[in-house]
Every structure is written in C-alpha cells, then in structure tokens.
Amino acid sequence: MSDLLAGAYLAKGTIGNVGTPGAPIATFSLVVVPSQHSVTGTVIITQAVQGPDSHIVVPVTGKIYAAGLGKFTQLVSLKGQYVHSVPPPAIGSFLAEFNAHFAIDNAWNGVGGFSYYQHNVENVPVAAAKNLQTELA
C-alpha cells in the first residue's frame, strides 16, 4: 500500500501556440503517478477573445504511458468536464467535455492537442513550465 504513490511528481506547462494572438491556450498542473499510469489535476483554458470560452477551469484525470516514438518518451491523455454557460439571449448551462492528448519527452516538451465545446486544437506545442524544466533536468 505504501508503494501506491511511488515516484509521484508535479508537472506544469502549456498546450497551444503561446504568443499567437487569440489562440486558445491550455495551462496544466498535474500530479503524475507513473507506477499507476495515472494523471490528475487541473487545466485552465484561456483565450484573449472575450466570451464564455475565454477562461475555463477543468478538473481532469488521465493516463500516462511510456512510448517508443523517437524523441517522444511518454504519451498522455486527459479528460474532464466543466460547466459551460450559454450566452444571451439563450439561458442555461450544461456540462461540456474536455479532452487532451500529447506526446512528450522526459522534460514534458512535445506536441499535442485538446478539444472543448465546439473547439478543436491540434498539432500544437506542449511546453513545460520554465521552473519545471530545471527541476526535471
């Protein structure tokens, strides 16, 4: 039972074209437990364009597995749900799905994509947070 969280660590970073005006960016903060192939945490999707999708917080769970894809050593998948509010003149809210997938190296840099209500972002960079890069080195 004590080995359940063996090797657990924190991973932080972004998925998306950071610096591109109007591009949606998914910022992640995840607890990774490689021995259990599990990932749990939070993703915050931001977009400079104002509207109901300009700031979304999503609790996520997922899987992490070793990969043998050249420079990419790990495959990660995330899923979660968040409350999406319908803009006026309609009234209401519903649970919307969030999904992400990426192929990364040991420093959490690579390529991936994510989708959320009526948005699909593919083939974008995955970058570890600057302070995480030095911790993993």
Automatic annotation (TrEMBL):
Upper taxonomic lineage: Bacteria, Pseudomonadati, Bacteroidota, Flavobacteriia, Flavobacteriales
Source organism, top-level taxon: Bacteria
Q: Which InterPro entries has this protein been placed in?
A: DUF1842
Which organism was this protein described from?
Flavobacterium ginsengiterrae
Q: What is this protein called?
A: DUF1842 domain-containing protein
Q: Where is the DUF1842 domain?
A: 7-118
What Pfam families does this protein map onto?
DUF1842
